[in-house]
Amino acid sequence: MTAKHDRQNDRRWNHNIHYHPRVLQAIPDGARRALDVGCGEGMLAREIRRTVPHVTGIDLHAPSIDEARAHHDDIDYVLGDFLTHPFEPASFDVIASVATLHHMDAATGLTRMRELLRPGGVLAIVGLARDTLPKDLPHVLAGVVGNAAHRAAKGHWHHPSPTVWPPPATYREMRALAADLLPGSRYRRHLLFRYTLIWRRPPA
Predict the structure, then answer these.
(1) Which residue segment(s) compose the domain that 61 sits in?
(2) Residue 150 CB: number of other CB atoms within 10 A?
């Protein structure tokens, strides 16, 4: 990775990047292999690589994968469908996913991530969900104010990957789904229109 690319990453900000530290803090000690689901142009994968020696990023968007590969680092970037790519079961110590789960059926995606995680491994998700109005109006208003303050100070980087809006599942539905499929997971809703979901697979 070049110093120029490092400086570009340091200047970038958006809602997804804002919550990258939540993923990085969840990486378990001694992790050797990581998977970034929906890696886009590889920004999070490169951050994970600072800690984890073997990182794979997978995405369906060819232009983003091309941009990721242009960094000429040692990350394995795969152009393909995470749900069907022939990864070995229980082969990753950490699986990360930022703003990707709402692009697929959430239950199918979570089940696939669970299957690919080694015992003791950690799943770390930053996700988007749909508000339920009027119940969620206080969250929406707080997010609008927080977003304005952050953008005024940091600007906003528009990622090149495709978007899906609105997200198909609500925040409450995602919380219930996580509790069902990933018992013991930690779900938290955040100010800037995102939730995080952290789960450690029980040891064998």
Answers:
(1) 3-131+158-200
(2) 17
Q: How far apart are CA 160 and CA 147, in angstroms?
A: 20
Question: What is the rounded distance in angstroms from the CA atom of residue 132 to the CA atom of residue 146?
Answer: 19
CA–CA dist 45, 96 (Å, integer): 9
**Domain contains 13:** yes
User: Is this structure's pTM higher than 0.85?
Assistant: yes
Asked if residue 46 is part of any domain, the answer here is yes
Within-domain flag for 152: no
Distance, in Å, from the CA atom of 140 to the CA atom of 131, rounded to the nearest integer, reads 8
Work out how many domains the chain is built from and give that number: 1
Residue 54, classed as helix, strand or coil, is strand
- Letter for the amino acid at 124? A
Q: Are 28 and 120 in contact (CB under 8 A)?
A: yes
User: pLDDT for 17-55, tens place per residue?
Assistant: 999 999 999 999 999 999 999 999 999 999 999 999 999
Q: Tell me the C-alpha distance between 19 and 32, whole Å.
A: 22
Inside any domain, residue 139 = no
Q: Measured on CA atoms in the order 67, 69, 74, 76, is the torsion positive or negative?
A: positive
CA 39 – CA 59 distance, rounded (Å): 6
